[in-house]
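Continuing the batch. This is chain 6 of the set; chains 1 through 5 are on the previous pages. Same settings as before, nothing changed between runs. Recording input and output for traceability.
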Amino acid sequence: MNAHYCLTCLESGAELSDETLPLRNPDAKAPALLRTRYHQTRFTPGPPDLGIYRFSDWLPIRRTLAGSCSPITFRSEALASHLGLSQLLITFCGYWPERGARMLTGTFKECEAYSVCARMWANDDRVLVVASAGNTARAFIRVCSDNGIPLVVVVPQRNLPAVWSIGPVAPCVRVIAAAGDSDYSDAIALAAIISDLPGFVAEGGARNVARRDGMATTVLSAVDTTGEIPAHYFQAVGSGTGAIAAWEANLRLIDSGDYGDRKMRLHLSQNAPFAPIHDSWMNRSRDLVPIDEDDARRRIALIGAKVLANREPPYGLRGGLYDALADTGGTTGVVDNETAAAAANLFERLEGVDLEPAAAVAVAHLKAAVEAGQIGASEAVMLNVTGGGYRRIAAELDRRAIAPTCVIERDTFRPDAVSRIMTELFARRTYA
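Output for chain 6:
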């Protein structure tokens, strides 16, 4: 069923089968990601009407699911002219019908959801468990609801305003809120407890090759549009999984032999005052900077782009962010809320669509990099706009808030307590 790819451990080089959907190599001597190796080494995308599955040769999938949309890429004129760039590519994921973008959750997390769920066996009756700060939740809720895939998604309670759907949600989907001032890392911890229970399975985050290869389709879209690998890549990051995915797509394109040996320079931005990836990279250390939990909660409460608040990004492990930045000569930057808001207004005025907060951070970082002379006027630049069109969605579609099925207090994040809650919840088989 998965004859078109295998998995390779980046620490040992060992080749693994994907039959059991592994997230790691149990024999690795150090933490490392797995990476897919596709037997089709040439980049041969299919027609746009296949949605994200037009890139199925480079997706670790066993089936296709209904409702997907591919990222779209176009050459900017207005923003490019404003910044003085002659080759600015905007890769957009969100809702922008005039451009052919119809991701109904407004986020590029749909790319990973349609890939992750298509990697799963069709007859797998376990409940998929996903942790999210908001965007990933919307994407998996949509994909799982539309395709009848059992799902528990765990989000911080204070991030619930970011969790909504277009139309009703199927009863196979349940939303669990981590109570109070819980953040994304708390949601990850709670999701890990749930996924260890019988009948549940962890989605896996950055360790899931399908998540990364799904997000890599943003770069594939750009290269399919222009026929070349860009010189620079801009994205705002929380976990940085999308940036790792972009780097991996770049390496596959080089290995294809059709696009030369250019490596995109990664330019990754975070929302001040919470920027552990930036702080770690400035030290040029494989070790993530120490993060005080109380101080992190205080800083996270201050940032506008909540989806960028990850206290445990895949930074130092083999194949992680440190390696991606080091291999590409990458840079990082920080953007405050006011600067991000100004960038969002600029983008909407010039290009005609509203941005989600993380995408605004990336636009601000691009603007600052150009002004600092880091980008040549004639160099090919890819701006990964990871979400947008929220206002259009609210105005034109049946957008509905989603109430949590239950709220779990942090002091009950214990296997025994969570097991009782989940047993009772699934016995009721209800959806709030």
